[in-house]
Amino acid sequence: MVHEPTRDTASSVQVPEAAVGRLSLYLRELQRLLDEGIETVSSTQLGRRLGFSDAQVRKDLAHFGHFGYPGIGYRCLELSEKVKTILGTNRSWVVVLVGVGNLGRALLRYRGFEQQSFRIAAALDIDPQMVGSRVEGIPVFGLELAAEVIKTHGIRLAIVCVPSPVAQSVVDQLVEAGIEGVLNFAPITISLPKHVRSESVDLAIQLEQLSFAVVNKEQSA
Amino acid sequence: MVHEPTRDTASSVQVPEAAVGRLSLYLRELQRLLDEGIETVSSTQLGRRLGFSDAQVRKDLAHFGHFGYPGIGYRCLELSEKVKTILGTNRSWVVVLVGVGNLGRALLRYRGFEQQSFRIAAALDIDPQMVGSRVEGIPVFGLELAAEVIKTHGIRLAIVCVPSPVAQSVVDQLVEAGIEGVLNFAPITISLPKHVRSESVDLAIQLEQLSFAVVNKEQSA
DNA sequence: TAGATTGTTAATCGATTAACAATC
DNA sequence: TAGATTGTTAATCGATTAACAATC
Description:
Largest interface: A-B, 68 and 72 residues
Order of helices and strands of chain A: HEHHEHEHEEEHEHEEHH
Oligomer: homodimer
Structural class of chain A: alpha/beta
Shape of chain A: globular
């Protein structure tokens, strides 16, 4: 009796979202290991460096393939390349930054993510004073040119650092213009069509979490 | 000073850590409702605005007390005050910012979290050129004065935006000086003693998560 | 009262951990 | 071969959802 190959790849098996989050941490740690000249790492070692159990590490990675060698562990370089491919960062992403205020300018200057295959190619703003200028070498266009800028540079992701009151409407325009993912710095919950994904950074919320943890330290200890 | 990375499993059995994270989102949304002049909200309404189920909202809040009124819902003002008390943000927190580089200066300028009861009272740096100056009105001290600055201002939380290679050692010094919570912008996993809590912001990781979601959109849809 | 909505218990679902045969 | 470590299955643990009596 001949069977069709069973489809148990990532497309049919549900990969927990938390596992994808940890994938980024594994990658970051693998890159540190490589910097330290370490060539192989076991799930126990990798987990210890990140505060995860060995089982967690193996399970997470096994969702995506057979990357390890029994008796040896994982080869750091090989695994980091595999993880990059899974995350989609084996190739370069072109990003647009929207809102060239204090925070936006700092991010243009920061460049902390460039080494990780994300490159800001253009900025958008509504301020006529900014439009037409360059900030940190990056040209600033009017928001109404979003669709054109996005198409010209093959942009799929946006970093949005506009004031909260206009954030939803700005994101709506970006979605209209074809953006597929949004990193949002405005402290509001953005409504998006299902085909667009967002991540957000809210420093007030993170500080609140620290506040809670510190205040409740006695109880949780 | 070497510590094990803090384990998430240290969270209390009674209240899931994820529920505490959502508490901040409830608070943010309650403040928007108040701005809109809305006085009461049901778990269904609040959940819809945040993308959570009504049961989730009720369950999360019920971990901390009986805040609702059957037949009516939750009174926005009252609930927001209760949530602030739980999070510890009903009172003001004094924060120190460490590392006055591009990102640090942007955060000093940003002030997005001041309205949420977090106030940066002082900055620390090792650059002799910076030490003794003021940035955005905030005085910059040498890192070696950490303990004194922390004690003088009653500081318990630190925002750390120093380069990755020195982040662990800087945090070690802050812990030594008595800091209780750290918001870390360096893209590394920081080892901390169990009594110190950390949150981190890593833009590269958040962009990677967007990258994954966009690349795997077909499968996940 | 009738309608609405909570807080809570029970049922379901999912994620983490433990254990171990397979394998290098 | 002996020792180490993976990938995977089973067991455990925890979190979310459903349902509904209590209650305003």
